[in-house]
């Protein structure tokens, strides 16, 4: 599952106070208006319930894209001489709220906005917000694809998974594109106004790598049979706990991949793990300094372990199908070592309680981080019964542990009673792990361009009379409210963005 980003929020700014354009008279005003729409929409999105955020994220993508088109056109106009800064004013300064930094760093709390000067600072934040929104959209689509109410034996034909993959790859393209731009300049000697973690070069490189790693792992998800297999057949020792995975179904599990297909899946998983390792490496200094959000650091570690363990699982599946049950068990045990733990399978009451608690905690974490289905008929509230089962989250350590434990129990029983093959030591299998294989390539991102009709409107000195602007005539003058109490308090569902979006 792609990382659950939190969308940043921003303060107000008036481009008209800093720039003028004889060629495009209304360009600064248009930038101010579209930024105001984005600002209010981000604040409104923050106040929505999880069930509403999943359906609203497409709107965030659209308005962010529209704002970026005007912002970049202003940047191009400044370079070509069609626009110029107003000499009597200071350089434009905007504020954004970091969402990937640790809770406290150098006395700066995460709830404080970070100021930055220049259009480059604004461009980096706007594009980053767009990339986060694409990732959140991918999570929403995956939630619908993996939901027990929509999953079926022919779910491989569903368009939801390819759509989610495209959104994750778009996110990776945006992060990679930002690495090619001139970075914003930090204020010399001012630690508080240094480049925020969200848009610093190491973090952007890490985000590009982790997005590509998530997309690579999703390529395996479509035809990975074993989470469904264990959901159908049940996990040993779980029936007395009334576990969700021990339900009986009327159809058979899909056949396991073998031969070349199993080796391909394994190499894809190893490639995803390598991307996670690369994402960890480029921000290692920031992690040691405690500057990165703990949730993101934990996500990197989980993705690395899960991907490598899943690669070992597919190698074990191939060995077991070809009659080498002992070697298959060895791969399973190596995968368990990569995950760093086991799920208790004994029948003691304490172990049962620990296993049930672990499952509930994972479901609670998913309920907080994952948006629900995007279907129009989905409920407006989210209950614990509608949470994605932990063993279907493709980036959950708990999920892969359950799958590996289930295979280990079944194969060990067969080997102990019928086959009696020797299980090789796990350290002897490490050298046999194949190299990763890429399935996706981050293509060059095409920057957002302003349409010719909009450019002609700007040249004539007019601007598009959107519903939002018509009700916010004071936005370009910067007279609208921007108090902290308005943004951080009163999170009731009655909040509405003027203009009829909510």
From TrEMBL:
All copies of domain BRO1, residue ranges: 1-410
Gene3D superfamilies for this protein: alix/aip1 like domains
Low complexity: compositionally biased ranges: 368-389
A Pfam match: DUF5355
One GO location term (cellular component): plasma membrane
Domain of life per record: Eukaryota
Organism in which the protein naturally occurs: Terfezia boudieri ATCC MYA-4762
Name listed for the protein in its UniProt record: pH-response regulator protein palC
SMART domains: BRO1
Biological processes annotated in GO: cellular response to pH
Entry similarity comment: Belongs to the palC family.
Region (Disordered): 368-394, 461-502
């Amino acid at each position: 599952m792609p990382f659950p980003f939190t969308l940043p929020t921003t303060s107000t700014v008036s481009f008209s106070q800093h720039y003028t354009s004889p060629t495009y008279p209304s360009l600064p005003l248009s930038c101010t208006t579209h930024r105001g729409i984005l600002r209010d929409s981000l604040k409104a999105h923050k106040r929505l319930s999880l069930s509403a955020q999943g359906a609203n994220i497409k709107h965030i993508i659209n308005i962010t894209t529209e704002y970026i088109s005007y912002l970049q056109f202003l940047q191009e106009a400044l370079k070509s001489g069609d626009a110029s800064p107003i000499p009597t004013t200071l350089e434009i300064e905007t504020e954004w709220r970091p969402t990937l930094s640790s809770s406290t760093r150098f006395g700066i709390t995460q709830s404080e906005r970070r100021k930055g000067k220049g259009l480059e600072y604004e461009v980096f934040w706007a594009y980053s917000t767009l990339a986060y929104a694409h990732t959140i959209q991918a999570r929403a689509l995956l939630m619908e694809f993996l939901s027990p109410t929509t999953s079926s034996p022919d779910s491989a034909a569903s368009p939801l998974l390819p759509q989610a993959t495209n959104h994750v790859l778009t996110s990776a393209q945006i992060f990679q594109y930002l690495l090619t731009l001139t970075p914003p300049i930090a204020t010399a000697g001012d630690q508080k106004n240094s480049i925020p973690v969200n848009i610093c070069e190491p973090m952007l490189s890490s985000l590009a790598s982790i997005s590509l790693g998530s997309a690579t792992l999703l390529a395996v998800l479509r035809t990975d049979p074993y989470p469904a297999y264990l959901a159908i057949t049940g996990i040993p020792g779980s029936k007395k706990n009334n576990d969700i995975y021990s339900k009986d179904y009327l159809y058979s599990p899909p056949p396991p991949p073998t031969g070349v297909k199993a080796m391909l899946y394994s190499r894809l998983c190893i490639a995803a793990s390598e991307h996670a390792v690369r994402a960890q490496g480029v921000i290692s200094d920031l992690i040691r300094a405690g500057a990165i959000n703990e949730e993101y650091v934990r996500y990197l570690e989980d993705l690395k372990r899960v991907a490598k363990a899943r690669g070992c699982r597919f190698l074990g599946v191939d060995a077991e199908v070809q009659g080498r049950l002992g070697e298959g068990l060895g791969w399973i045990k190596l995968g368990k070592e990569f995950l760093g733990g086991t799920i208790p399978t004994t029948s003691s009451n304490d172990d049962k309680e620990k296993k049930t608690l672990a499952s509930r905690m994972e479901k609670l974490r998913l309920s907080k981080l994952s948006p629900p289905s995007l279907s129009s008929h989905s409920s407006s509230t989210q209950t614990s019964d509608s949470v994605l089962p932990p063993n279907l989250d493709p980036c959950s350590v708990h999920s892969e542990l359950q799958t590996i434990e289930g295979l280990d129990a079944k194969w060990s029983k067969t080997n102990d009673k019928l086959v009696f093959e020797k299980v090789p030591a796990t350290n002897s299998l490490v050298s046999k792990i194949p190299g990763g294989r890429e399935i996706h390539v981050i293509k060059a991102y095409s920057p957002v361009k302003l349409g010719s009709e909009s450019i002609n409107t700007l040249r004539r000195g007019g601007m598009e009379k959107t519903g939002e602007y018509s009700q916010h005539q004071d936005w370009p003058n910067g007279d609208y409210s921007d108090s902290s109490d308005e943004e951080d308090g009163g999170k009731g569902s009655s909040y509405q963005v003027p203009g009829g979006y909510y």
